[in-house]
Amino acid sequence: MGSPGYHRRQRGITGAWWRLCVAIAGSAVGLVAAAVAAVFCVTVVARAIGYDDFTVDPNDGINAGEMLATNLGLALLIPVAALLARTVYGVKPRRLSSVRPGLRWTWLIACAAMATAVWALLFALVLAGVLAQGNARLGAAVVGFLLVVVLTTPLQAAGEEYIFRGLLMQAFGTARLPTWCCCLATGALFATAHLQFQPALFLDRLLLGVVFAWLVVWTGGLEASIAVHAVKNVSVLVPAALLGNVEDAIDPGSVTWVPFVVDVVLLSIAVPWIAYRWRRRERQMGPAGTSYPTTSG
Which are the contacts of 77, defined by CB distance < 8 A and separation ≥ 6? Predict the structure, then answer.
């Protein structure tokens, strides 16, 4: 496997199981706290600039402000993960990014390009369908929403990855669970955190969580999972915004297996491609470019 050891980096630490429980509980508390903080900040700013009646109420549709609050709340999981890694495991936050440590920006960009190429066909087909219907919206509100999606969705995806595939993946690995169990456990927590338990939706999130975890183990870092996660979300939200049915894209009223099948197909293209590119990158860089000693500080 490409860079084994990402999820085994704290192998010598004691109290792995109680630390795992604290990490899970802390992540749950952090998720709620981050969401509340983001809603509060966006509401204060919105009212300060003249939107006196601004409130976050998903029942009346999702506007740009509510999308911003949602994405920023999830982006705040990055410092939450960093804080928990430091306090629970004594790990420097940058060691959650990759085995280097730190985020490998050139690899992140390469993964984003590959994911974009794979999801581009789906995006083009959906966009063509939107335009063919003749009811696409492109007013100021939609443009604002699209800007929020494009600019903050990558941060939202990164926040989820740092918690589920970063902190918790290493937490399960520290408990010496088999790699497949670490992937499945973090995938199950990821799916559960969405609070959508219809079989099609839950299994789709479980699939994504497990695949993202495998990518993290294979490549030794979060870059591939962040890239695929961000591109996938943007490709879903942009057409939904043009049609004015974002709430259905995020929390669909009628659930089908189509998204699950689509994700299976696209991931079956993207994941082998990324794995192949990583293997080539490894061979070009040599062992010195990808192997790092195990530390806990």
Answer: 27, 30, 31, 34, 159, 160, 162, 163
